[in-house]
TrEMBL record:
GO terms for molecular function: porin activity. Residues 1-26 form the signal peptide. This is Porin B. GO terms for biological process: carbohydrate transport. Keywords: Signal. The lineage of its organism: Bacteria, Pseudomonadati, Planctomycetota, Planctomycetia, Planctomycetales. Belongs to the OprB family. It comes from the Bacteria. GO terms for cellular component: membrane.
Amino acid sequence: MRKARKAFAVLCCAVGLAATPAALHAEDWIAFVTPCQDLSASDGESLWERPRLAGDLFGLRSGLEEKGIGLHFYATQFYQGLAAGGNESDWEYGGKLDSLIDIDGQKLGLWEGLFVNLHSETRLGQSVNNLDGLLTPSNIAMSFPEAEGNVTALTGVKITQALSPNFAVYAGKINTLDEYPLRYSPALGLERPGIGGFMNTSLVFNPIMARTIPYSALGVGAAVLSEGEPVFTLTAFDPQERATIGLQDPYERGVVIMPDFVLRLKPFDLPGVYNFGGGYSTAEYRSVDPASYLFLPDIGLVGGTEDGSWAAYANFYQALWADSKDDTKSWGVFGQFGISDGNPNPIRFVANMGLSGRSMVPHRPLDTFGLGFFYLGLSENFKDLAEPILPQQDEYGTELFYNYAVTPWCRVTADLQVARPSTQGLDTPVIPGVRMSMIF
C-alpha cells in the first residue's frame, strides 16, 4: 500500500511540474476535451435534415454554447435475442439514456484553459448479457452503469486544465470507455461507443485491460497534444469501480499506472490511427474476481490472490479508401491485440480484426457498417480454477452490423453476433438484434 501511494504521489508531482503555462488558443486542444461531435443546428432547419431532433431549442442551445456550455443527449433502445445457444433462448428489450455536458471555463467567465466534461447515464429494462453465456457481453452499452436493473448514475466528471497548446492535466471521475481512443474510423467517432457501431464488448473496448481498468474510475493524469489530439497520456487510476458510488477512500486498494500512445498517420494520404499502451496495477486480485468489462462465470471463491497485474495492447485502424474531400467518409481495416500476465488476468491474449467504415453505399453518406472477429485466449490459471466447477475454454466469435441513418438524428442498426462461449457445454449463441439511437 505504501508503494502504491508513493507511486501515486510521484505521478501527481510529475503532472504538476511537467509544463509551464503558455499562450492558449482553444482550437489547439478543443478536440481533446470535447469528445462529442459538433452538432449545432437551428430550429429553422428541416426536421429531416437537422443533426439533432430538438434543433436549437429556439436559441437556448446556441445561447448556452456561447456561454461555454455544450449539451448532448442520446436515447437508445435495444431489442436483442438468443435465436440459438447460450444459457436461454429469449428476447429482451432495454434502453439507455446518455447525457453529456461540456463546459468551457473561459467562456463561462472563469479562467483560460479550464474544461469540465460530465456524463450521466440511465439504464432501463433488460438485456441478453446474462443469457448469451459470453465472457465479453454482447451488449456493452447495457452493461453500465450496472449490469441489471433500472439505474441512473454520474459516470464521468472530468476536469481538464490546459497549460499550453500542447500540454494538459486532468483529474476526476473518468469514464474510461469515453476515453478509449479507437473508434475504427473517423466516422464512427460521431457515435457513442456501443450505440453507433459494434455492440460486443470485445469489439468496442480491448478486453486485455478489463482486469485492472474500471469502467468509471477516479483518475489523475497528463496529456501531450498535437493539433488538439492526444499523442501521449499518462494516467493514475484507482482500481475501484465507481460507476454508482462517489470518490470516498481514494486509492485505498492501490494504483493503476497507464501510459497510452496514439499516432495519427496518413500513409498514401489515407487516415490511420495507431494506439499502443498498457498498464500496471499494484492492487491484489484473483483471476476469478469480477471485472467491469467482463461477465465472469460464478465459480465460487477459489484461488489465492496475486499482488499486481500487468497488460499491454496494440490497436489500429487504417483506411483503405477515403473521400478526397472528407476523410471521415472512409472504410478500412482495424485490429486489437493484447497480452497479459495470465494470472490474475483471466485473459492471456486478445486478437481481434475486422472491416468497418462509413459511406460505402452510394447516396448514403451517414450510414456506417462493420464486420469484426474476436478471439480471447483465456489463461491456464483461470481454466484450471474453473475446471472442477464450470470448465472454461477460449472464446471467439464474429459480429456484423449495418447502421442506417433514417435522419441525421435517428439511426437504426441491424446487428448479428455468433460466438463460441467461454463456458464449455453451452451451444453456440446466435444473437440477432436491432437498435435505434436518437440524438436530441
